[in-house]
Design brief:
Strand order of the largest sheet: 1-2-3-12-4-7-8
Largest sheet: 7 strands, mixed
Structural class: alpha+beta
Helix content: 25-40%
Order of helices and strands: HHHEEHEHEEEEEHEEEHHEH
CATH class of the largest domain: Alpha Beta
Number of domains: 2
Length: 305
């Protein structure tokens, strides 16, 4: 893919791809503004090389709409909890819609109070959470995003799907791109990576996933349960992310989905934290030191591959 103004033969520009995705969502009843937000998050992931969270998600998003698990007409509602705290009921809207609302609301409050925290519950797929951390970091905020969702990952020592692959993103202002962002799942490989391997029919490394019976597998077509990164560390993070997102927001996910006779439903929750970096020191100074650190890391001698 290219970001050039015009298309070359066999290529499509990022704006063209975003416009195509947006039209698909609008055709399913989504408001043009919301459709553009969702499309932008998907294309952003592709431009960063994270294809598992890019436009290849379009078929699954459209399927979620058809199955009634993503509400194309969802109208997220913001609830004021305290001066620096808020909650957003996403009304099952596509995740980027309430999450962008959360970023902008947290930034607004953090400019006044120095810090703000928002909870988003009952959203559909959020997309690459690094997008939201970057959006805030480029405005001068230290941003932290935590998420939870349906059970896709085994708890350490268990052989059943019992946790979300709960993503984490941290963004800070500074660097040549205006922000430095960590974006990771608490699983060795995200569910999107496993789905991508299945589509491409490529073997996966041992330690990525279990099959439906709980046995380790390298066959992507048999991969049914993701494994946590760092064993107990990754599963511990996934557990606590559920506690500080879904449970704290009053919309528990995992306990309800894992009980006898309960069927997993596609729904997610997120916590977004924005900290005004300028309250601790001048923003320019902070960004300069972040950039200097990034330069040092990039100059480190590389291991032989």
């Amino acid at each position: 893919m290219t970001q050039a103004a015009g298309s070359e033969a066999g290529k499509i520009t990022a704006p063209e791809l975003a416009a195509f995705a947006s039209r698909l969502f609008v055709s399913r009843g989504m408001a043009p503004e919301h459709a553009a937000q969702v499309a932008d998050v998907l294309v952003w992931a592709d431009l960063r090389g994270v294809d598992s969270h890019g436009v290849e998600r379009l078929p699954s998003y459209l399927s979620l709409i058809e199955r009634g698990q993503m509400n194309p007409k969802g109208a997220p509602r913001l609830e004021d909890v305290a001066p620096a705290l808020f909650r957003i009921d996403a009304d099952r809207a596509a995740g980027p819609v309430p999450m962008i609302m959360a970023v902008d609301e947290a930034a607004r409050r953090a400019r006044t109070f120095g810090v703000a925290t928002g909870l988003v519950c009952r959203s559909a797929h959020t997309g690459a959470v690094g997008y939201y951390a970057q959006r805030a970091a480029r405005q001068g905020f230290v941003a932290i995003v935590m998420g939870s969702g349906p059970p896709l990952m085994a708890y350490h020592g268990a052989r059943a799907a019992s946790l979300s692959t709960s993503p984490l993103s941290i963004g800070v202002p500074g660097g040549p791109d205006g922000a430095i962002v960590l974006d990771m799942a608490t699983s060795v490989a995200s569910n999107g990576k496993l789905k991508q391997a299945q589509r491409e029919k490529k073997p996966i490394p041992l330690g990525w996933a279990l099959d439906a019976q709980g046995a380790p597998t390298t066959d992507p077509m048999q991969a049914a349960i993701a494994l946590p990164i760092g064993g107990p560390k990754g599963s511990g993070l996934g557990l606590m992310f559920e506690c500080v997102t879904s449970v704290l927001a009053g919309a528990p996910l995992l306990a309800n989905m894992l009980g006898p006779g309960n069927k997993p439903f596609h729904m997610q929750s997120e916590m977004f934290i924005a900290i005004d970096a300028s309250r601790f020191r001048a923003r320019d100074d902070y960004e300069r030191d972040v950039a200097a650190l990034a330069d040092v890391i990039k100059s480190l001698p590389r291991t032989e591959e």
